[in-house]
Design a protein that fits this description.
Elements (H helix, E strand, L loop, with lengths): L1 E4 L1 H8 L6 H13 L3 E5 H15 L1 H11 L3 E4 L3 H14 L6 H13 L3 E3 L3 H5 L7
Parallel strand pairs: 1-2, 1-4, 2-3
């Protein structure tokens, strides 16, 4: 199985105080034990690094880099994907739908990935399966 991993999932796995931490840890372990291919993109990676460093500190960022990143396949957003994602953000006209989300949707659709490890409701709204 291939699962796209969003910032909301990475953060929930790392932050014991996050409301989704318990569920995230269970899903994370199940994905690892089930030999899932874990995919993300460089926009999610950057967003996650900034969030973890700001909220949890450098030790948590180091743990993310050393323990989680090696398990990932990181897809790099192309110019065309970026432009498509920006157009989607502007067309949607929704303040909370981010460029990172829309870039993730583009990567997932192009790769045929239907499952997202995410606690961000936008993934389900876009038709992706978010429960494991």
């Amino acid at each position: 199985m291939i699962a796209f991993v969003d910032t909301s999932a990475f953060y929930a796995v790392l932050d014991r105080d996050d409301e989704n931490h318990h569920a995230a840890r269970k899903i994370w372990q199940a994905l690892l034990q089930g030999d899932a291919i874990l995919v993300t993109n460089n926009y999610v990676f950057l967003e996650t690094c900034a969030l973890v460093q700001h909220r949890l500190g450098l030790d948590a960022l180091r743990a993310f880099q050393q323990q989680i990143v090696p398990l990932l396949t990181i897809e790099w957003i192309t110019k065309v994907q970026h432009e498509s994602a920006m157009a989607a953000v502007l067309a949607a006209g929704r303040k909370r739908l981010s460029l990172v989300d829309c870039a993730s949707f583009a990567v997932m659709r192009e790769a045929g990935v239907t499952k997202a490890f995410a606690f961000d409701r936008h993934f389900a709204e876009q038709g992706f399966e978010c429960r494991f």
